[in-house]
Amino acid sequence: MHIPRIPLLRVPRALARTGYRRTSRITRILISLFLIAPLVLPVNFVLINPGEGNPLFPKMLKVNSVKTYPVDGQMFLLSIWVTNPQTLVLGFQVLHCWIKPTCVVTPRSVIYPKVTDDKAELAEGAKEMKQSQNSAIVATKKLFAKKYPELNLAELTDASLKVSLKNTGGPSGGLIFSLGLVELLAPENLLQGRKIAATGTISKSGAVGAIGGVQEKIVAARAAGVELLFISRKNCDEISGEVDGLKVIAVSTLEEAYLALKGGGNSDFRGVQGCTNLSA
């Protein structure tokens, strides 16, 4: 049986002379550029990642001029990594951050004011950390006046407190600085061999305030092998009931954190305590 063959269609010479093939190639290039350009161009976003758990003892937090006691355990200052205001964040970096479950993308205006730079932000962060250390000293003195009236902390001043931590700023270390001072200055063994962390601002009255990046700090605490994490009760609406093996206690004051630390509690419990929105 004869089967007719259909010849291949050829581009007429006249059409070829119009630059049809060259236009097609240019179109493909333009489409490729349209798709690729957003990935390699700067975008107005900030990337937030979990940082580290920095141990307080024996090098980071030191006290002079006042009697201290041996530490049995460890406390950690938790940090997060935030891109600086002058850092160029490219589109592909945003895409990569979206893919990572522990990375957060947020508009730059949410984190930084319109007029700022790296130098200004570093200076502001250092200032806030210094203020948090001063508030921690005052709050600790008030707690000791109530819990250890026999101890004289008159010589505990800003000059007697030394914090060694580079390239880190902000007010969120206030609570852990306070607990670190309590551990060093109290004659009792409060840590009892445990690894604990805390994040939250501290006022001179001992009130614990909210901080940003609490979920990222939970990741940092878990990576540091922390067993117990104190957070501000004002951050309760930002965490879920599942904290992957951690014991998280939400507090409103330094005294609440002190009592929980002193009491020891149920060391086998894992989850969140102190957050009413989680029925805990």
TrEMBL record:
<keyword id="KW-0472">Membrane</keyword>
<protein>
    <submittedName>
        <fullName>Lon-like protease</fullName>
    </submittedName>
</protein>
<dbReference type="InterPro" id="IPR020568">
    <property type="entry name" value="Ribosomal_Su5_D2-typ_SF"/>
</dbReference>
<dbReference type="InterPro" id="IPR008269">
    <property type="entry name" value="Lon_proteolytic"/>
</dbReference>
<dbReference type="InterPro" id="IPR014721">
    <property type="entry name" value="Ribsml_uS5_D2-typ_fold_subgr"/>
</dbReference>
<feature type="transmembrane region" description="Helical">
    <location>
        <begin position="29"/>
        <end position="48"/>
    </location>
</feature>
<keyword id="KW-0812">Transmembrane</keyword>
<feature type="domain" description="Lon proteolytic">
    <location>
        <begin position="169"/>
        <end position="256"/>
    </location>
</feature>
<dbReference type="Pfam" id="PF05362">
    <property type="entry name" value="Lon_C"/>
</dbReference>
<keyword id="KW-1133">Transmembrane helix</keyword>
